[in-house]
Amino acid sequence: MAPQSQRQSTSMLARRPGWLWLAALLTLCYVLIPAYWMANSLAVLSSSGFAAGLSSLLRVSAAAVALTLLLGAAAAYALGRPEARGRGMRYAALALVALPQIALIGALHLLFSNSCEVSAGACGDRQLYTTPWPLIVPYVLLTLPLTVALLAAGFRDLAGAQVAEADAASQLPLRIYGRTILPLAAPALAAAGLIGFIAGWNGFLSAVGFTSASKYRAAPIALSLFGNIGFGVVVALAAALIVSGPLALLALALQRQLAAGADAPADRRASSRRLRRLQQAWLDLSGPARVLLVVLALSAYVFAAEGWRVLAFPYALDYGEAPLLDQTMRLAHGQSIYRADLQLAPFTIANYPPLYLLAQVPLAWLFGPAFWYGRLLSWLAMIGAALFAGLILRALTGDRLAALVGGLTLLALPYTRYWGPLYRVDALALCLSLAALWLTVRFFAAPAGGAEEARPHADRRGRPALALVAVALLLVAAVYARQSYGLAAPLAAFVWLWMQRLRRQALALAGLVAGLGLGLFVLLNLATGGGFFFNIVTANVNEVKGELLRQYLGELGMFMPILVLITALFALLAARERSWRLLLPYAVGAALSGLTIGKVGSNINYLLEFCAAMSLAAGAALAWLRRAPRIRHALMLALALQVFLLLPGLSYQLFSQFRLDSRADMALVGERIRAADGPVLADEDIGQLVLAGRPLLFQPFELTQLARVGKWNQAPLLEAIERQEYALILIFKFPGLPLDRDRWTDQMRAAIERRYAEVEQIGFTVVYRPR
Prior knowledge:
Blueprint: H1 2-14, H2 18-32, H3 38-45, H4 50-80, H5 89-95, H6 102-113, H7 115-118, H8 133-156, H9 160-169, H10 173-184, H11 186-201, H12 205-209, H13 219-225, H14 233-253, H15 255-263, H16 268-284, H17 287-312, H18 321-332, H19 355-358, H20 361-367, H21 372-397, H22 400-412, H23 414-419, H24 426-443, H25 464-479, H26 488-499, H27 503-527, H28 531-536, H29 546-559, H30 561-573, H31 580-594, H32 608-624, H33 629-646, H34 653-661, H35 663-675, E1 680-682, H36 686-691, H37 700-708, H38 715-722, E2 728-732, H39 739-743, H40 746-755, E3 756-762, E4 765-770
Helix pairs in contact: 3-14, 4-8, 4-11, 4-13, 5-8, 8-11, 11-15, 17-21, 17-22, 17-33, 18-20, 21-22, 21-24, 21-32, 22-32, 24-25, 24-26, 25-27, 26-27, 26-31, 30-32, 31-32, 38-40
């Protein structure tokens, strides 16, 4: 009857009511769209002492849980075995749970505040009262009895046959305890650890009475300060949400173990098999695989840390961020950003299609001009791109390790680490294009061999037409996020379908992408009076310099030689591999798109698609070499070395670090702009204009390039400078980089020197005022 009742409960869980799915969807939208909570949460985290208190609370709670489980598991194993003596002690331990915390406050306060007297002066200059131990010890004392009781019951429920089998396999008690008993008791450990963490996280009395060091005052104390006058109710609720968030995340992370504990002992044998499979999978990993995964995990942490620094920085880090934010604000106010006539101010260019900008318009309505929401969108999109890269490899190769390595490698490359969290269009385009490729390989099967035409998966009948439309929409969306993404991913999808002998679907996909893309292009061009074509095509034809192309390609080969070599060898030697049919056209298309990096003003974002191609090739090469373990292990170590050497980043990231360290100077520049009694021109600091609520009147680099190739007449701007129409002109002059020469023509600089005087220099920004 037990299996039947279990099947009935499972079927009841499967038939969840519609409102539950709706609630889950609304919760997901609330979490993923930060418009409703990000501003107040940032205000809480930036308040004095709260972030430090949260960090202290996390460290103290984690240390208390670790110590409690270490001591409690050993004691519970001794008390929970059937042949153990004194098993009634666990009931005595359980009785200690009823001991109120307030009863310990006085004695423990005297102990910790007079630790030198108690230890006869052995403490030296360091007082126990100024360390985190007065917080850790009470939490351990209070949660240890309950932990012992819970774990003893869990050890008692272990099947005797499993323990006997473990005893027969090995006579070493520590090995039995560590490799067999603890994994089997994972549900009980999870429950006990969660209870202990909750006790430490919510502890208030110990945090108030047991330490005098402000850096160890936990978040509950900081949370109590938000109830004072001066903090809004919404901010206080945001603080409470932040404090309760880790508990919810921990409960979600442990829900499988907790559910397994609730089903014990009926499902103990199945749970044991799953745990053994997971344990065996980890043990089966070779040494090189573990080294590679550790290095990739470290690089993922660096990606997250650098992304957080960029998200928290309020000013522009890259010149291209400010024009995009200005265009977002113009769209939010219902203005056109694609102007065909540049003889009247504002002299601005929109170089990219509008998808990325339109996605931020609702946030611009709510929060006004700010960089954080666009950066967050890009950062999440880059993480999504890594996820889809892993899913593509999983669908192509069936190798989970290869999929994990391919996805994490994309996040490990310095190009993606630097460009991913910026307010730029590229990460969203990359994510959409890889999502399209994943749908392509997921819903359209490889041929089984023979002369028969390949068909979509049998278990997905009725979906291929819808899947083909979804692939086309994602590819067109990627193109309308950044137009250069119209080559690599569409080419790869077309070649994949064609080589699977799904030629009707391949031609249909090409027709859909071309029809939708050209149709939108014609509509936008008509709606803007030809401005869309001028901004997207004409204004993007900059001068190409061979030395720039050689510089970027040389840097790619110098700093990432192993990845470049793996990609080349896989393209040349792995023609029989299933994944080769998708990755070769994608790598070729990405390489052709990357060659446009030789244009003046180009940056490493032109190589992001090729970075994705190298990551996919690295994962596919690992799967390809499964039958050659020695070469596969050598490749893992080579990849680990490559990723490790890339952890410090590259030289171009020094400028970003300089901008992060120039926060005070940038704030002062913003004050000058807000105090100006007229329009302002700037180059590197144009982001300050947008943040101050001023529209951009001139984009220096874009218009200077158009003027030099004869596609824009700079006479109106020169006349305005001669008439001294601008209250301030800010020019960024960085030693060793001729940025001002790329952003201002000789005639512009001469007119500024003639009609304006240099009045001060803030950092490397020279401030000019009318003479």
